[in-house]
Design a protein that fits this description.
- It comes from Planktothrix tepida PCC 9214.
- This is Chromosome segregation ATPase.
- Keywords: Membrane, Transmembrane, Transmembrane helix.
- The chain has 27 helices and no strands.
- By secondary structure, it is mostly helical.
- Among the domains are: about 140 residues; about 160 residues, no CATH class; about 100 residues, no CATH class; about 100 residues, no CATH class.
- The chain is flat, with a radius of gyration of 71 Å.
- About 25% of the residues are buried.
Amino acid sequence: MSENQEQQSQSQSPKTTDTGNSPQIPIRSLVRKSRAEWLKELCTNLEVTKTQPPTSTEVPNSAPLPRTANQIVLYQPPPTSSSQEPEKRKRFVFPRTIPVNLVPLILALLILVPGGIGVLAVGLLFRLPALPNCPKIFWPVASASLRLYCAESAANKQTVADLLVAIDLVNSLPEDHPLRPEINRQIEKWSMDILDLAEEMFQAGQLSEAIAAAEKTPEHTPAAAQVSKRIDQWNSIWDEAEKVYEETEDLMRQEKLNLAFKEATLLLNLGNNYWGTNKYQELTDRIAITREDSQKLAKARSLIAQGSVDNLLAAAKLIDQLSPESYLKDAGQKEITTISNKIMALAEETLKNGNWQEAINIANKIPSSANLQENVKDFVVLAKANVPALLDTVAGLKDAIAQAQKIGRDRPLYQKAQEYISNWQGSIADVATLERARQLAQPGGVNDLRAAIAQVQTIPASNPRGQEAKTEMVSWTRRIEEIEDKPLLDMAEQLASFGDTDSLKQAIVQAQKIGRGRALYDNAQNHIAEWRDRSQRLEYQPILDRAEQLAAEGNYAEAIAQAQQISSGIVLYSTANNKIRQWKTQLRDLENLQNSETLAAPGTPDSYVAAINMANKVSNSSRLRSQVNQLINQWSQSLLQLGLDQSTYDVPGAIGILKKIPPGTSTYSQAQAQIQDWQQWLNPPTPQPEYQPPVEEVQPPVEEVPPPIEEVQPSPEPNLPPQDAPNEPPPIELNKPLTTPATGI
């Protein structure tokens, strides 16, 4: 506050009066003093108040103010005249005293209020100016800097809509505006940001959103030229990814899981994070699930191939365990259909065999997942209808037809029921015919049986009972053939009972009258084979015995000629042929033995060697082998003796003779030892000089005098015994046997 204002306020304030001898302090002047002055004046007034006595002067029309020690008189209004108009408004009068208990509060306020005002002033000085509220700005009158600021604020949100708003805010400014270079730079950046956001959408798997965002890029921006190319690239990558995904799914459906995994890895190289991470992981998870399901399906197929009801039900249970998301669900459903058809076929087969209760039990085991419950119900009806049909009577067939007719046209097994009905209807007449034929065949005579056959021949083979009629006809025909051929077979057996050759031959002729295809033909052929064997043995066994006797006597040639009389087709032919081969071998061995003895007769080394070689041709299984071995040992001993005899004058020649002794003979090892001794004697080893270590002479220590120079003499050669010339054997005295340490001969 200025000094003039302060003086004016002081002049306008009421002056202090002496009424009641109490000083009056104007509050406005009190407030405008400093705290120190105010405190000093306050203390002074307190002292004056305590020392001055009270006055009797009172303010008219006002109650006297009681003064106490705890009150301070600040202001006392002047007396008013009685002539003042009562209706005149009185002025507000400050209280003349302040309670002592309010002094601390007033002091606190005097301290805190100025301090708070100061803090508020400092805060206002440092407070930033308020930011503009961009959404509420009236843009036609907004400045370019404000537009640029709000555009940057919107672009910082990094959304396509905000980036487009930012571009529209600043792009409306004229081209010659001073901020146009900065605006163009920002527009280029924001347009590329729009394309980058679209790329992020594409990488996140949002193709349609990415294309929509890219197409919103303003045409006048630099990024607009890349929009078409970028969209084509996205579509190409997306189409390729979908193609790879579909191909992988097809491979999984075909259970080619290794190829499916290889195909799925192509997603990693397409350049899209969504397909390379999310969809690739999705495919690998599905491949793993499909691999487990494939193993279950393979095991189920193995059980299906085994074919029994239990295996089929176990296979169906495995297929039900397939994952609902599995690509093999359709394949599993096909296998379920196969299982159901197989179970139904087994039930029908069981029903045809007459076990209708077991057939119903089998049909009820068809898996519920096959959705064949209605088929099973119809099959149960047909199975129960088969019960009276199995009685094979006209009444039973009519009852079966009535039950089968309960299956209406809208039922799944209607056609099957009609087949049964047609079969049973056709069987009614045939059953009646069969019943009459059986009655005709009951006496069992030939004429009766032929009459029954004629009756069933009226039933066509294509009729339901055609096969049954054929079976009955074959049975009755066999009974007729047995009746007709039994006397022939009995006569043949009676002839064969005599046991001689002629009787057996007559029995064979009699049994051969039973023709092929007749009922007793196989029985007759068995008897014929038996009788022929007995007849041939009686006829040819003496010939074989005579041949064996000749062979035992050593007359192998005549034995062979005798046995050759048994020709092929005779029961003893194989036995005789084996004997002939044995006798031919023994005859050949005998000839070799005789030839070896002839060769050994000259007594020369070569003759003995030839004889030994010839004798070794005798087979080891021959009974002449022991004799041959004795001769070979004898001839080898002769060879050894010839070699020893020749060694007295010709050792090399003796060695040659002993080398001819074959292995396995009694003198072979002795001959080899003798050959080794002779060879060592002929080729003695060259003696080697004995090694003698050099003798070291110990000389006494010599004083430091250079040693005399000595001439180095070559060491004399050791005295070696004279060596005999190699390959020159010592002279051998003639007519003197040669003895060696090895043999002692």
